[in-house]
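May I ask for a protein sequence together with how it folds?
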Amino acid sequence: MHETYRAKNEKLAYERLTGKLVEVGRVFDAAQKAFRNVRIRMRSLPKSLAPVLAVNNSAADIERVLLDAIDDALEGLATDIFKAPCDPNGAGRL
């Protein structure tokens, strides 16, 4: 029994050292940061797109602009969801 317990503890220690085992709090914090970045990027779309959409009369043009902006936002999130998004007004990171 003692050997089994020691072996399991050694396995857990090894998995922590190799990064296979992480604290649930760190996972939660990372997920929270990722979702916050999704929210920031998506909520920045209206402000950055409003001037472009205001001059478009065609539904097809508006749809294209919206789809391009959403695709760009999603691509940015796919490459680094944990990095803070850039301010659409050029003021650096949000």
In short: Residues 2-79 form one domain. The helical segments are 2-18, 24-54, 59-79.
